Amino acid sequence: MGTGRHSRLPLSSAQQGVWLAHRNDPTACRYTCAECLTLDGPLDTAVLRRAWARLGAEADALRVVRFAHEADGGLYQVLADEVAPLRELDLRGEPDAEAAALAYAHADLDAPLDLATGPVSHAALLRTAENRHLLYLRMHHAVTDGYSMHLLHSTLADLYTSTLRGQPRTTTPLRELAGLVERDAKYRAGADFEVDDAYWTKRFADHPEPMRLPGARAERADPTRGARPVRTQAELPTTDVELFSATATELGTSWQVAVIGATAAYLQRATGRRDVVLGLASNARRGIAANRTPGMAANTLALRVDVAPSMSLRGLLPSVAEEVAQAQRHERYRYDDLCRALRVPAAEEGPLGPIINFMPYPRHYAFADVTASALNLSAGPLPDITFGLTGTAEDGLTASVDANAALHREDRLPADLRRWTEFLRSVTRRPDRPLHSIDLLTVAERVELLVRRNETTCERTANSVVDLIEAVARQHPDHVAVAGRGLSLTYAELDARSAALAARLAEHGVRREDVVGLAMPRSPHLIVAMLAVLRAGGCYLPLDLGYPPDRIRYMVTDSAPRCVVVSDPAAAGAVLPADTHLVEVTERPTTPHAPVTIDPDGAANIIYTSGSTGSPKGVLSHHRGLANLALDHSARFGLDADSSVLQYVSPAFDAAGGDIWPALVAGARLVLPADPVEVSTTDLITLLRDERITHVALPPSMLRQLSAEGLPDLRTLVVGGESTDANVVDRWAPGRRMMNMYGPTEACCAATGAQVVPGEPLTIGVPIDNVTVYVLDADLQPVVPGAAGELYVAGTGVARGYLNQPALTAEKFLPCPFGPPGARMYRTGDRVHQDDEGVLRYLGRSDHQVKIRGHRVELGEIEAALGDDPAVGNAIVMATAAPSGNKRLVGYVVPRDAAQVDPDSLRAKVRTVLPEYMVPSAIVVLDEFPLQPNGKVDRKALPEPDRPRADAADRGPVTEEQAVLCKLFAEVLGIDEIGVRDSFFELGGDSILALRLVSAARAAGMDVDSRQVFEHPTVGELAEVVRPLATEGGDADPDDDGTGAFPAPPIVRWALELGPVDAFHQSMCVRVPAGADLDRLTEALRLLIDRHPALRTRLVDDRELHVDPPGRADAVVSAVDVTGRSAHEVAAVLEQQRAAAVEALRPAEGRVVRAVWLDAGAGAPGTLLLVLHHLAVDGVSWRILLPDLAHAWAVVSGTDSTPWSPLGTSAKTWSTQLAQAATEPHWTAQTELWRRILRTGGPAIGTRDLDPGTDTFATAATTGITLSADVAEPLLTVLPDRYRATQDDILLTALALAVGHHLPASGSAVLVDLEGHGRHGAGRAVALENTVGWFTSIHPVAVDPGPVAWSTVESGGAELGTAVKRVKEQLRAIPDHGIGFGMARYLNAATGAELAGLGAPRLAFNYLGRLTAGADADWAPAGDDPFAGTADPRMAMPHALELNAIAYDRADGTHLELRAMWPSGVLDEAAVTGLLDALRTALIGFAAHARGPGVGGLTPSDVPLAGLDQDDIDEITERRPDTTDILPLTPLQEALLLHNLITVNAVDAYNDQLRLTFEGPLDAARMRGALTTVLRRHPVLAAAFEHDVAVPVQVLGGTPEPPWTEHDLAHLDDAELDRRADRLATADRMARFALDEPPPMRCRLIKRAADRHELVLTAHHIVWDGWSMAIVLRELFACYADGDDRALAQPPRYRTYLNWLAEQDFSVAVEAWARYLADLPGPTLFAPGLPSTAQVTHDLLIAELPEDRSAALVARAREAGVTLNTLVQLVWAVLLNQLTGADDVVFGTSVSGRPPDLPGVDRMVGLLTNTIPVRVRLARDAPVADALTALTREQVPLLDHHHVGLATIQRQAGHDRTGLFDTTVMVLNYPFDPAEWDAVLGDLRVSDYALSDGTPFPLRMVVVPGRKTQVRLGFRPDAVGGTDARCLLRRAVAVFTALAHDTDQTVSDLIAAASAAGRSPEGPA
């Protein structure tokens, strides 16, 4: 160009993004930007032309004419030398010049734009009046943005003004576009881009869904529709601007940040979503130059703010300001880049929805004396909706809303703008107001939502169906009213018979609102009875005799009917309670019927529905509602005297009323078929046709099975009760009226309805007559129009409530704030959306989601996936609960058209479209679904699945150890069956149950401890570490019989300090088998007492206990006959006997056991009350005693002769060890910790200090609370599993928060005495899992959950997770499980006095674990509350408040009981009750928290090897929410990671590749699945490597699949096929892995022929080594052959190796290497000047030794007593001598790194190998045999130190260099066994395989042993030429040959052989 500027430029990243988006735009005009300047005044157009030309000369963007791909493949923007001139048009002759000008502009905007041909910009000057012009400027978004348009306008105005006036311009010249492009390129190539990338990808690692405002379309409309966004705008009054500024000043921020915060708050209120993602438009320019350059640079920053509804603007803004500041620090990172990083296919599908845009540009520009105002015509596309503010606070603001027309309707935008600006005003006017209190609705909107849409009033002349039916009988007496079961009644007969029966019921005492049951089959008699009950003033209760008898009896007992009308007394009497008063339907009265006045609000019927508690609940409806339903439906469905109505569903179902009463009040014929279970689909179609049915209501599940053809009389079809799919509608709706009715039983079965039309969305319509509906939010306020909310029903149809359940009625039937006084509304629990016409669309239950393994799951999504299979006709998925409270998914399918469905194949198919946690664990194929009487699917009748075949999700045991452990897990956890991958703790285990498991395992001969259970919680993992229990010299001393004197343990001394302990006891009620007798019971207890020394304990004094020998137990059992007594009487006897037994305890005399047998008679099980002194028992002991008692009974009864399980360590031995260890330094050093804890401040509990003389247990008061299963189970199972915590951690956190709320103090810490089971040794191994005694430990803890708002506690907010993590780490910081406190306090005189002086916490807590209650089994705890225990009333109470928690596993789930005890003189009951209420609230909040998103997380104690703090861990898990483990790197991994990072622009030499060729039939999907299974077995293969935390780590988690690509090259000829395959493999090996994007592995499957395939597996060396490759292949082929890993043992965990590595003494290892490298003259470098960071692929030369030479080499090594590896090392040393001239050489070699003493190391996958130096000192005169021996001798001391990192080793040489060597050797002896592979694969065979691995070292020799030994020389061609390399290989072969042929050579001879080979002519080696 003449100007010297470039004629073309590359594109910036911003331009590239727009260019790519334009290519995908079908309209080719969405990315067009345009503005129009209206110039009012005398414009000098000549001057404007000159100014435009000058502007074009400066603004490169105006001169971009097109975009072009050039020959070099690059994309460029082509610039013209001059800007195109303004096009000038005079429109003054047009009728409407302004309209013509805008039409011109819009026509230009709508024209498609071809960027390849251009032009990309256009400018025109349109004259519309004498002194009025429009300057129109249109530019493509690739060359401009909003800021640039302003910059061009202002510069043009300045140039015009300065030219016209002949004065200097006021603006500086514009800068070149090239600078903008260059700065962008530099940024993207620099470190700042990497930092920004890390920030944004971490911030959005969890892929949040974009927010959608109410009214936005769920699906995008046609993208060609509305190419330009739609807009509305309004000027903001000055008062608003002043308000924003003043509030911002008050809150210490800018008005823009205040508006951003207010907008985020608005989005939360409008959507109900706390996680607000809001885009912030940014011009993304930094520096003066960028700000003076027009061009495309704009970006959108994604802000993410947590907005709680309870917050105020003041509370919200600090986090908003910080978020904005962080985002702006990283603003150059483009949103397009973020979408790509998140793997979002298009920016429109990224996390952004709403955007806020501040446009601080002037509204007017001065062209000298002409004023120009700007009008934006198009700003490019929008992903969703943008809230804009244009202008400045000083000059005024214009608010606007721009929206994507594909998502938003234009007519809605004014309301969106008004709602947003009104909210801004409200929230800034009162910045301390809670956000949820701000109403988003106008008065008009409230009227529309609450009033107009509910205008359903319809006057009723009758208020009961009785009056209406009597009127029909008078008008049409001879018309048939009801027919069925061979009987037909006219209306006159119906009237007469119902009147007669009503009279008879009155004679039986039926009065107004008395309940009358109806227990008879469906027939006209039933309709007579229903009407008769109503006419008698009663309330009918339909009882379906097909229901389970227990359910019928419950309904009768609950409703207490006056009588039950029956047609078959015998049949009814068989299922009804015996005392039920029966009335036959045919009984005749003795007196005529006296009409009863019916109260419209009186009870009309009771319908029982399922209850959440497990028992049905009776819904009580009234006459007014029933009459309203009948009249509405008769009119709505068009019923009349000519109609025939089929009543299909059971009359016990509420929907039956929707059939019966509308038909009868309309005078129609009601047809009654047999019960649905008796009617086949064929029978039903026949019935509809033969009876000429005109109206029927059928469930969609039934319609799916019926043919819609051949029913000409059917005019109206009603559906409802369950979802209806489009297929049903398409088949059934044409030719008739199809209605979808919605309504719960509580709203008289119908509340809304809609006609169903094929092709239109299915809705539930609008309310029926006299019913109102409201869509409300959590605060019972109407939601914004278009938003989803919960449906509430009010009006005539609302039932009176639930029978006998006032609390539930009050919960569900709420006062209606929108109706007249006294009105009520029913909370349906259904989520709905209401459109502009008030039509409701059903969205699902608010509780429809289930949670599986911590994931939220929509069952409908899984059902749809199953239904996508063409063989499946219908599918249902159920989440079934295990006894532990966990859930599993079961799928039920009915085949389509008798197709065959294979469950395994279907599961495999579903697994390809759903994540693993959503795949059903079993699929059951049924011929048809069982139906309820109402025709719906009876989900409770669906069969339990058989245990699924072992597969990738859950497989059965393989080894004997696994089988035993599966059985033991099941027994201890109370679960039917266990898989090898089931986690003990995930299924409900805790630390106490772990002790039971250990005890049971030891009894089964397994040596295992509780620590191993925690570290290896699954059966498979634990089976790998258990060992057989030693028969001699095990944990228990054979001489330790537990008898004799021993020191009292700390817990006993603690008790004795409090006073006399004679009555201190625990008791348990146990069920005794029927037929028991006193003699056998006495003998069983004698065996038990003799077995357990603790049951023979005597209290000698306050320091000593004594255990008597066995055989001295006195009679401890007495019997009481309770035969025939009531439960209440038995309970009274039990308490009397308990008191007597406690009184009989004499610990000083050794009387510590007393038992009472409550004999219930010969045929009934009795109860054994066991009362044990606390000296002999604790909570864990009961779990040992009861199974042993059962075993003792079996021995006495002669039914079991198996020996007792071993006992383990006795209490005597344990206590003695504690006393001996108490003065050891390890324990005394803990004193400072206990001192610090006891000095912790906290809330004051109690009104005064404890007085030991006054505050005894005699003054104790108690109370308690019980938490139901829905709260307890998440607390005890879900949260401990998710947080890897104990139940103590969760319960203590809740307790601390409750105490802090109820008793506020200066800090958040609470001092607690924490009880634990105490079964830990004092530094010595003990086995206490099967030992009975009192081992309890008590130690103080300072529990500090940190500040958490109480509202957060109540709502279960995310902050509770932080609190749990804090407390968990505080408790983990207590050493040795806290037993050291008791030792210091009671067993060490020096420390005991000091600690005693510090006092004790005033609050104590003890979690006693889980007990089974109410189990129907002998020798199990009996009754609902079997456990009890109290202290001696004379003992001083040690705490102001004690809380004991115990979990009872009952039939309806696990319940948690919390019992409080306190001295009544220190606390009053109100204070304790208040605290318990707060604790209940906190625990309920924690249970809610367990159901929230993203619950759980790791803490430092979970990943101790990683060395990270909580912030680092949170940073990682926020990026990777599915993290399961974080591991450190091995030294070699650290080196490989560093290498990967510093060679970012080069080939990574550590990409390993395996190529395998298969012959035979290969199933690609099966092979891919097998590889995925291998990755799941060895998660380290899919590790992500994080380096931007304190120390580099590898992160495991999720179920990633390796990238898999398939290529079909079978059509190519062999030569081309080989070339293509090699090219693909090479490309894979050359492509770098991003090690922070797992997995670092990829796979290609190349089809070479129909039965010939090549598998190319490429992985980074950082996750595996050669040994691991062999394991991976072996497992891959096994999984392929079997379809899963059932035949494979549980793999050892890589963590085990890292644990071993951390335990090694590195100082010893380093010293060994230092000695080895001492006096090394220097490094041995082959290519010292080679750049270390330049990565060049090796060339490879291969020589093959003949068979005889290969065999001779092996023989030479064997003769010398060395390995082939040693021989190879000597050869390489000789070659290095030739290359360097040195005799003392060093080079690298690879070692396996697998310590032989590590169990399972031979089956472990991961990087265990290491590169270590080999030093060889060549003694030239030494015989070769001596040289080999010396080599071995020098390396033997290093065998235990191969794990030390190479960098550390090299530093020991004392040379200031980075490396000791640059050549390496290795012997490739990986355990590859092709014969084994082929044996496993069957028809498939591995015909060839090749391994390619790399190294950064320039020279490497690899020797591959075999029949013909291979010598491979790899070399970098930039380090050594091909000729030299071939020469070196010849030398190597020569030395190997010399070694093979002559055993008596010296080292000099080898050197000579190498030298001679080097001088020989070049040729084959």
From TrEMBL:
Q: Name one GO molecular function term.
A: catalytic activity
- Which parts of the sequence belong to the Carrier domain? 956-1030
Q: Which domain of life is it from?
A: Bacteria
Which key words are in the record? Antibiotic biosynthesis, Phosphopantetheine, Phosphoprotein, Repeat
Q: Which GO terms describe its biological process?
A: amino acid activation for nonribosomal peptide biosynthetic process; antibiotic biosynthetic process; lipid biosynthetic process; secondary metabolite biosynthetic process
PROSITE patterns, per this entry? AMP_BINDING, CARRIER, PHOSPHOPANTETHEINE
* Comp. bias (Basic and acidic residues): 936-956
**UniProt GO cellular component terms:** cytoplasm
Identify the stretch(es) annotated as Disordered.
Answer: 210-229, 935-956
Do you know which InterPro entries this protein is assigned to? Answer: AA_adenyl_dom, ACP-like_sf, AMP-bd_C, AMP-bd_C_sf, AMP-binding_CS, AMP-dep_synth/lig_dom, ANL_N_sf, CAT-like_dom_sf
Write one Pfam family the protein is assigned to.
AMP-binding_C
The yes or no answer to whether the keyword Cell division is present is no
This protein's cofactor list reads: pantetheine 4'-phosphate
**Record keyword Acyltransferase present:** no
- Return the similarity comment: Belongs to the ATP-dependent AMP-binding enzyme family.
Protein name as annotated: Non-ribosomal peptide synthase protein (TIGR01720 family)/amino acid adenylation domain-containing protein
Q: Which organism is this protein's natural source?
A: Labedaea rhizosphaerae
**Taxonomic placement:** Bacteria, Bacillati, Actinomycetota, Actinomycetes, Pseudonocardiales
